[in-house]
Write a structure and sequence with these properties.
By secondary structure, this protein is an alpha+beta fold. It has 6 helices and 6 strands. It has a single domain, classed as CBS-domain. Bound molecules: adenosine-5'-diphosphate. Adenosine-5'-diphosphate binds next to strand 3, helix 4 and strand 5.
């Protein structure tokens, strides 16, 4: 016996997959850091999306590679522009929860045409970032289906 479940269980397995089972560590920057430092951070931590927080660590925005590239095209001093000027800001940030079905978060990534969602906890004063869900995590989940099932 291969240890794989028969093919008919695959939809059940898929429905049981939660964001928290596949999420990655979030990389966050403060909203007053410069675009220059955000670019450095992106290379250092090898991520494509940075989450932006205020001084109380509540989510205020998102920075993608192209947000930073766009700003770099202008003739501006990147070390003097704070990221809150160029980020996609709340309430326009799309997020998810760790106990949510993965398939639901995957729909959100595709519908909004974005690469990553912050995984958050809701608090009275705002959202705390506890994880990062990317298209890579969805691809990994997709592969895990083929490992646990006879296809
Ligand atoms: P890139 O811009 O590098 O292709 P994305 O496709 O993820 O990366 O981002 C496209 C745009 O959507 C960017 O302006 C970015 O700020 C914004 N964005 C990225 N992630 C989110 C999110 N979770 N919620 C809202 N906007 C987002």
């Amino acid at each position: 016996y291969s240890g794989k479940k028969p093919g008919q269980d695959i939809s059940e397995t898929m429905n049981n997959m939660k964001v928290g089972d596949f999420q990655s560590i979030p990389v966050v920057v403060r909203e007053d850091v410069s675009v220059y430092d955000a670019i450095s951070q992106m290379f250092l931590d090898d991520v494509g999306t940075l989450f932006v927080v205020d001084k109380k660590s509540f989510l205020t925005g998102v920075l993608s590679r192209k947000d930073l590239l766009r700003t770099s095209l202008g003739n501006q001093d990147l070390s003097t522009i704070p990221v809150h000027i160029i980020m996609t800001r709340m309430p326009n940030v799309t997020f998810c929860f760790k106990n949510e079905p993965l398939i639901q978060a995957a729909h959100r990534l595709i519908n909004q045409q974005i690469d990553a969602l912050p995984v958050v906890i809701e608090q009275p004063e705002g959202l705390k970032v506890i994880g990062r869900l990317t298209k890579t995590n969805i691809t990994r989940a997709f592969l895990s289906l083929s490992e646990s099932h006879e296809l």
